[in-house]
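Incident log entry.

Two folding requests arrived from the same account within the same minute. Monitoring flagged them as a possible duplicate submission, but the sequences differ. Recording both here for audit purposes.

Request one:
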Amino acid sequence: MAWRAFGRKRRDMPPGLWIKCLGCEAMVFRKQVSELLEVCPKCNYHFRLTSHERLQVTLDEGSFQEFFADVVSSDPLAFTQPKSYEEQLRTSRENTGLPEAVVTGTGLFGGRRIAIGVMDFRFIGGSMGSAVGEKVTRLTELATAEKLPLIIFCASGGARMQEGMLSLAQMAKTASALARHSDAGGLYISVLTDPTTAGVAASFAFLGDVILAEPKALIGFAGPRVIKLTHRVELPEGFQTAEFLLEHGLLDAVVPRIELHDHLTRIIDHLAPLPPTAQPVPAEADANP
């Protein structure tokens, strides 16, 4: 009514111009959040990234080559409760455009080829079934065989209960592959994002030579609510946040997303330096031989 009284027409705001921060609940300019790699400019809340977005902000443009995309989960237990596992898989694939909860492959990182895996929480909570464990294992074996640094971005609710013991067996399988990678002198960097929990946290997420995390990421085995209800104890402030784990010696660093690329570069250059004859070629030089 007020708009009519003053003789003005109300203009519709373009959709997607503003978003609500899940941390401070402020309305923030969408473009500004994007420029900060999906981080709130007011409170530094780190929005979750999809696997595609993570690859985009990590690797040299257009350099990602996917491997093992054909490895997907089946339904070995014919799981039906509360709804069929087949339906959950089909819905996740349709909604995300992904075949599974982890994307694996190689790409260039500052001109240097690396092996990389990125978990996507949108796909059944980033849970680890037999396909996820197989893809992480194959990626690790590829990194070992080709002497590549390995980076895995973790985001998971844990083992996938719809596959029973088959999902739990992936903890040992991935750990064994990483042990062989380490014995061969390979570098493995684990980056824990929100959330990293349960079977993934209890296996390859915490087996990195260097373990990094994004600010305020939830990291642990069981969630804090489950622990509190089970043990009936008051938990410390900030329990199972990245900062809490860093303070108690379980992480090497908590790194803001905007600084992560440079941080990873320093780690790789220091712990897995290339010999002088194998230095990466600048993109412009490579494009004009």
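Request two (distinct sequence, not a duplicate):
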Amino acid sequence: MVFFLELLPFIFMSLLVLFAIVYVLLQGVPQGILEVADLSVANIDYAVVFFLFLFLLFLWSFAFMIVTKYYLDCWIITDRRTIHTELRGFFSRFYSSVSHHNIQDVTVDVCGVLPTMMKYGNLKIQTAGAFRRFTFRQIPYPYETKKALLQASEEHRKKR
């Protein structure tokens, strides 16, 4: 649901741009726009279609970035540490981990009707290490994840 809601504006804008492209190809650029812009170029239709396709390309690039982030962001809770990998750009990855004995506090943040009903939210881990705060955004079942994390942290402390 979170993934779909994040993609929805891009889908909507892409459909609008596609309808605009079809309209310009079939009907041409409305004369009122040409008069307001004081343009008298005969092949303005092709330029408008070109820039609409260029805008559509940028929309699809941003949508692809959202899809890529969704599938490549990863949170792993092991018996010794919690690992967080996040895609920040097409060529930029963020990787960090925290040992369970450094965890000081775990907070769950579920705000809104939809996150409450769909059971997703943010999980924040406060640590004693150099990187003080880990935030796992829009994860499913954050309360169960918090419970598993605290249980793994407690077991790690007992082993030490």
